[in-house]
Design brief:
single chain, DUF2178 domain-containing protein, YndJ-like, elongated, transmembrane, mainly alpha, 76% helix, 130 residues, membrane
Amino acid sequence: MKHPFFPTIIGGIISFIIFTFDYFQFSLIEKFLMFAFFVILSLVILLIDDKDQTKSQKKVYSIIRVLHFPAALLSLASLMTSKTWEVGNSAISGALSLAWLLFTFLLALYGLVLILEKKRKIEEIAIGAG
C-alpha cells in the first residue's frame, strides 16, 4: 500500500528545491504559494479523510486525492512560464493554471456535498464552508 504522506514528502522536496536554488526566479510570496500547493494542501487533504463518508463524498474525495499533485505541478509550470522561462504569451500560463482552477472547484464541491449531507451538525458545516 502506498504511504499516505508520499505526495507531501515529494512536495516538500520540490518546495525545498524552489526555496534554495536561484534558478527559479520566484519572489518570496510565490515560493510560499508553491509550499502551500505542495505541502500544506496535501496535509489538509489527509485531514479531511473521514471513515464515515457517504458514497458521493468518497467519490469526490478520491478524485481530489488523484488530481492534487498533477494540478500542483501544472501550477508550478504556470509560474515558471511567466517567471523562469519568460515566455511572453500569457495564454500558456493561463492554460496551465486551468488545472488548479478545476481542482479548486472540486474542493468547493466536496465542501458543498459535506454541507448538504450533514445539515444538522454545525461543526461539519463549518468544516465544509472552509
